[in-house]
């Protein structure tokens, strides 16, 4: 599959061959859903916590005598039935992460890339380099019509380019090893450098 390569100033820079086994698959929503769910659950902090009846601050004195009141039998006010008492079976700190086979994660990334190609939202650029000025890069992005874009570079991201992109709203820059399904699907436009294409094909083959 051939795709035109452009420069950041909008000029043409030849074409590139994209591997059908990575960029030409029929996207599967179930695979993408599984990988995104795995990513988001792994990123969830899981620091939610409530106090049980042994942790609430209240007197442990028996509130009234056991018999003869005509009411229910109670010990202290920390019981879950009372206001400001402990919470029964509430959330405790835990990890929300679950396992997902490496092959499924790799396949999910291939399907995410293929989905962008099929939707016409994949752009290949020559290089991601600049003078480190946000104003210059912002004008180039605006001229190209990118509003919410993810730029994937090769093994390393150019320091000046990353500095210029840092303050542009809706623009993310990642090295090829940082490419992931959630970030790819979240953005309207996926931009990959030629070095990024080579690195992704080497990673996913």
From TrEMBL:
<keyword id="KW-0687">Ribonucleoprotein</keyword>
<dbReference type="InterPro" id="IPR013005">
    <property type="entry name" value="Ribosomal_uL4-like"/>
</dbReference>
<comment type="function">
    <text>Forms part of the polypeptide exit tunnel.</text>
</comment>
<dbReference type="GO" id="GO:1990904">
    <property type="term" value="C:ribonucleoprotein complex"/>
</dbReference>
<comment type="similarity">
    <text>Belongs to the universal ribosomal protein uL4 family.</text>
</comment>
<keyword id="KW-0689">Ribosomal protein</keyword>
<comment type="function">
    <text>One of the primary rRNA binding proteins, this protein initially binds near the 5'-end of the 23S rRNA. It is important during the early stages of 50S assembly. It makes multiple contacts with different domains of the 23S rRNA in the assembled 50S subunit and ribosome.</text>
</comment>
<dbReference type="InterPro" id="IPR002136">
    <property type="entry name" value="Ribosomal_uL4"/>
</dbReference>
<dbReference type="GO" id="GO:0019843">
    <property type="term" value="F:rRNA binding"/>
</dbReference>
<dbReference type="InterPro" id="IPR023574">
    <property type="entry name" value="Ribosomal_uL4_dom_sf"/>
</dbReference>
<dbReference type="GO" id="GO:0005840">
    <property type="term" value="C:ribosome"/>
</dbReference>
<dbReference type="GO" id="GO:0003735">
    <property type="term" value="F:structural constituent of ribosome"/>
</dbReference>
<comment type="subunit">
    <text>Part of the 50S ribosomal subunit.</text>
</comment>
<dbReference type="GO" id="GO:0006412">
    <property type="term" value="P:translation"/>
</dbReference>
<dbReference type="Pfam" id="PF00573">
    <property type="entry name" value="Ribosomal_L4"/>
</dbReference>
<keyword id="KW-0699">rRNA-binding</keyword>
<keyword id="KW-0694">RNA-binding</keyword>
<protein>
    <recommendedName>
        <fullName>Large ribosomal subunit protein uL4</fullName>
    </recommendedName>
</protein>
